[in-house]
Amino acid sequence: MPSIAPVILCGGSGTRLWPLSRETYPKQFVDLGEGRTLFKDTLLRAQRTPESLEPVVVCNEAHRFYVTAALYECDVRATILLEPAPRNTAPAIALAALTLTCNGADPLMLVLPSDHAIGDESAFLKGVESAASLAEQGHIVTFGITPQSPETGFGYIEQGETLGQSGFRVVRFVEKPDAVTAQAMLDRGGFLWNSGMFLLRASIYLQELERFAPEMHAACCAAWQGRMADGAFCRPDTAAFLASPSDSIDYAVMEQTDHAAVVPLSTGWSDLGSWEAFYQAEQGDDSGNVCHGDIMTQDAENCYSNAQHRLVTAIGVRDLVVVETRDAVLVAPRERVQEVKAMVGRLQSAQRVECRQHPLVYRPWGSYETLVMDGRFQVKRITVNPGAELSLQMHHHRAEHWVVVSGTAEVTNGNEIRLYTENQSTYIPVGTRHRLKNPGVIPLVLIEIQSGAYLGEDDIVRFADVYGREDLPAHGDESR
Q1: What does pTM read for this prediction?
Q2: Average of pLDDT values for 376-389?
Q3: What domains are defined for the chain?
């Protein structure tokens, strides 16, 4: 087996899975139970590929700390590329290819979306092994899923002549069809669902991109040449990258190249693009209900229920989706869950924070979660990683009271530095310089009670920061 570099794409926003998925907390990072996420599943699956190299993760600015937290929890090192703005998959893969070839190497790239679920991992790994021999010969290999039904939510690939032992030449790609067309393709045979996963030589991709999308190729090369290192992150040049057209690898390369090949995968697979997909991906109880969290049902059938923070009960209902989070609840018929995206659009138009911000927010030092928020007070749970620290800062409009739940806190409060342990507390007056640090070897967990006339995250003056954020805007996702 040749060396294979996993390239994991994290650009999706997952708006159809609101309220669990948000703009700043998309579905690939959502906790599916016991700390499991689709991103971690993808990362670990890629790590189990034979001859796997250090992965390259392509994500955007708002999600970078979710990526670093997951890498830390999985004990995986990776190169993290930060897209200045979304430009679809073709430019993202180009950045990864330029990263992998910059030192004279030229590995095969295993390109994986970060938000897919695969049922049979052994079948996936076997498919990668089959695809590797084709990619070694210069083919750009995509993986097609053996269809189980005439799905209208997926694109399709038509197989052509046989290539090697397990592959086929691609005849054409078919856009998401209507139900009649999908059934006709299944009846005819030779069609596969388009999974959006690829195995290809990095240099071959850049060669074909330059041939068929020269403007995109030039913009990505310029962005890579102008890159800057920022701690654990690599930042391509913003202006150059924004000059790139936005397009998928399918349109920019696969539909035009002579090197397109497909390897079928016979496995359960879903891009989990809706709550109905989540329902279909799991085995229901005797009444057809799929339940996550604290759920009690009575005379309920074929429902998907997900409770994140409290008891949810359902009586005498059929075919519903019910999703509860700390700050929002969704109730919809399963047959209409595709309309969730439209509802998110309405929330955006109304400038509702619930469509963008999740109560749980990751930072380079750890995370915080909003527990209660009212007009003049707010309660948060703050978790600081071992050895990490927040910026030295002050607030003009709010005071803070910190109570240590577990671990050890080193607190700078004005001119005083003190250690606090479990059940001890301290008070930070308005206008006082302060800093929180975890000097211990276990996570520090504390409860923060804010009070004041204004509690916005932009009420912060940062004096020093080990993560280099003092020159960045102190609002939005750069607070704390």
Answers
A1: 0.83
A2: 95
A3: 4-270 (3.90.550.10), 275-348 (no CATH), 360-478 (2.60.120.10)
